[in-house]
Design goal:
single chain; 6-stranded mixed sheet; 16 helices; alpha/beta; Rossmann fold
Length: 441
């Protein structure tokens, strides 16, 4: 039975919907004692998981039950922020009578949804740098992923997902959309952009990326948000400003106050991340600090050091990311065991409201209307790589007619990955090296 469920999840193309897109069937082959549902949704403005929990709590819990069956875990925990009262109410109702599934209420801080934070909050365990949650007996799955697991068990492939469209748009919304829908079409659905010169952030405002050309972007299995900001917004500037220019400014402005490290969530878990030392290494050419990689490898790229932690307006997270990428390219690994968790960790947590205020996001932190379904778009472009691992190989050709849910791209034999499926009924109008285009019909 377990192998049959895993195969269904694999063939349905389920991947981590809240992160980098790790194929879920591979994660569920492990043997943890605890499966944790990451229902925190800690990024400001994003409401996709919130509405998913409010309207589909039973399906999410069914997904957790399937995950427990696959892994043999003793318990499942749904970790959700207490502030999302309706979601908490619906999940509590859905787990009533479930012997092995419970709720864990999280404080409203950022980044409560970081995998390391949520494991510590639920179990009191800390995952060593360079290791994965199974090292401490845990598997973490996003709420949307659990929804897709439940659907997969019923024979439904991943063809859509919940996405928040917000920021400087006329009608902010959270909506269920087909995979491959053009981002431009989503913006039109939200009533259009309200400013003439704007940037589009895909994902959450802190960890998301700025789209180079929104006209060439499409919804993937991991797209939880499409956010519009004026191009001159400080958030956009921090993300896009020339790296070398930022480095020059840092050399003159970084005063080594170490506030970035004091509020670093990974540092407070004893994982050795020290943004101020990265800044010192880069600005004072003191490379010895980086010799073993300890100050950078544990970073989760939450951006807190940049958007809240630096009173000089610098961007430590961009420097850490650059150093970390260099270390990983050289295959430097951490051998550091976690140190003691900061006794004042709770006092060091940064409230989400403070993050919103510091980032200038208050005008955009509004309720978005929930839309369960939309009219099928005229065209979708489905990327062949929406996950960690090998890209899919097309198994359709131009001119083929396809049905919604039909597999159109399969993972090469023996490779890690997840198949992709047609998200609308129509005709294949293009098969390229990195995508398959389907036109409604």
């Amino acid at each position: 039975m377990k192998e049959q469920v895993l195969e269904k999840i694999k063939q349905a193309g389920v991947v981590g919907a809240g992160g980098a897109g790790f194929p879920t069937h591979a994660k569920l082959k492990s043997t943890p004692d605890t499966v944790i549902a990451n229902c925190a949704e800690c990024e400001p403005i994003i409401k996709s998981d919130k509405y998913l929990m409010e309207h589909n709590a039973d399906i999410i819990v069914e997904g957790m039950k399937a995950a427990l069956e696959c892994t043999g875990a003793e318990k499942g925990v749904l970790a959700v922020k207490y502030k999302n009262k309706k979601a908490v109410e619906e999940l509590r109702r859905a787990v009533e009578g479930e012997e092995h599934i419970t709720l864990h209420l999280l404080d409203n801080y950022y980044p409560a949804g970081d995998e390391q934070q949520i494991i510590y909050e639920v179990t009191g365990r800390v995952v060593p740098v360079g290791e994965i949650p199974i090292k401490v007996g845990c598997v973490v799955l996003n709420a949307q992923t659990l929804f897709h697991i439940s659907e997969a068990v019923q024979g439904t492939a991943v063809t859509g997902r919940m996405v928040t469209v917000a920021g400087a748009v006329k009608e902010p919304m959270t909506v269920q959309v087909p995979i491959g829908m053009p981002i431009e079409s989503l913006l039109e659905l939200a009533g259009g952009v309200m400013v003439s010169d704007y940037a589009v952030v895909l994902g959450g405002p802190l960890m998301g990326r700025v789209a180079e050309d929104p006209r060439k972007e499409y919804v993937t299995k991991t797209t939880n948000g499409v956010l519009v900001f004026p191009s001159e917004h400080p958030l956009v500037v921090k993300k896009t400003e020339d790296f070398n220019y930022q480095l020059k400014i840092a050399k003159s402005a970084c005063c080594q106050c170490n506030y970035c490290t004091l509020i670093c969530p990974r540092s407070n878990l004893g994982l050795g991340v020290q943004p101020h030392k990265i800044m010192q290494a880069l600005t004072l050419n003191n490379a010895d600090i980086l010799a073993d990689g300890q100050a950078a490898l544990g970073c989760c790229n939450c951006g807190l050091c940049t958007y809240v932690g630096c009173n000089m307006g610098l961007a430590p997270s961009r420097f850490i990311s650059a150093v970390r990428q260099g270390l990983l390219a050289r295959k430097v690994k951490s051998n550091q065991k976690p140190k003691n968790v900061n006794l004042f960790r709770n006092e060091s947590k940064v409230p989400s409201g403070r993050v919103i205020q510091r980032m200038g996001l208050s005008p955009y932190d509004t309720e978005s209307k929930y839309i369960e379904s939309i009219q099928t778009p005229k065209m979708v472009r489905i990327l062949l790589k929406q996950h960690i691992g090998a890209p899919c190989t097309p198994i359709v050709k131009e001119g083929d007619k396809v049905k919604k849910g039909q597999c159109i791209g399969q993972v090469p034999d023996g490779a890690l990955g997840a198949p992709v499926h047609a998200s609308i009924k129509g005709k294949v109008t293009a098969v390229a090296s990195d995508y398959i285009e389907i036109t409604k019909g």
